[in-house]
Amino acid sequence: MTRVLVVDDDALVRQLLTKILTDQGIEVVGDAADGDEVVAAIHAHRPDVVLMDLHMARVGGVAAITEVRRLPHPPAVIALTSFGTDETVLEALRAGAQGFLTKDADPGQIADSIEKVAGGGGALDPSSARVAIRHVADGRDSRRSTARLALARLTERELELAQHLPSGLTNAEIGVVAFCSESTVKAHLSRAMGKLGVATRTELGVIVDRADLSLRQPEA
């Protein structure tokens, strides 16, 4: 069972999150009321994932995430906030958060995101993913890491098929090498584009290429 530390300066929010996660089959091993309590709470409870509020009275979430990432074997961190501006999202990701969610996310989404980051993946809500993708395109952030974080929202099959896009293959050609029908390829890629908020196969291929995850076809 995934072990979670809940960090929020509102006691009612901590109680609510604890109940939500427990109902979803996730073990809440402890909580902290401010960013300056996080490192000690990690040493005490050994969580797999820290659910981190970003706006706290003494030490904010971004500073706390930075401290967590300096630990020898840090847990994964999901930033959780009431609202996320572009700069808030990027600050959290630059500090080392593996995920970003707003507090109005439904319980299933929060639980799924926790399991994803516990398994080494990333988890961004749709609006945060769009922010990350814009900054990949603008070249204002680490392209490889930001693109990989965005692609972590895809299923294994969606990513597998998208990895052929930088080679310029058509849907039919991808179907041949991936052993599936053209319509299956189209459906998976359409879902992937929807998750990442992009409109074309080309845009999706650019993100895959910048993540250095493309499957290049051998020269004839």
**Portion in beta strands:** 5-15%
Count, helices: 11
Global morphology: elongated
Fourth CATH level, the homologous superfamily of the largest domain: Response regulator
- What is the count of structural domains? 2
**Average pLDDT taken over every residue:** 87
Specify the CATH architecture of the largest domain. 3-Layer(aba) Sandwich
The N- and C-terminal alpha carbons lie at a distance of 49 Å
Descriptive key words:
single chain; 220 residues; alpha/beta; Rossmann fold; Arc Repressor Mutant, subunit A; 2 domains; six-stranded parallel beta sheet; elongated
What's the quick description here?
The protein is α/β, with parallel strands linked by helices and 220 residues long. The chain has 11 helices and 6 strands.
Secondary-structure map:
Elements: E1 3-7, H1 11-23, E2 27-32, H2 38-45, E3 49-53, H3 61-69, E4 76-81, H4 86-95, E5 99-102, H5 107-118, E6 123-124, H6 126-138, H7 143-151, H8 156-162, H9 171-178, H10 182-196, H11 201-210
Parallel strand pairs: 1-2, 1-3, 3-4, 4-5, 5-6
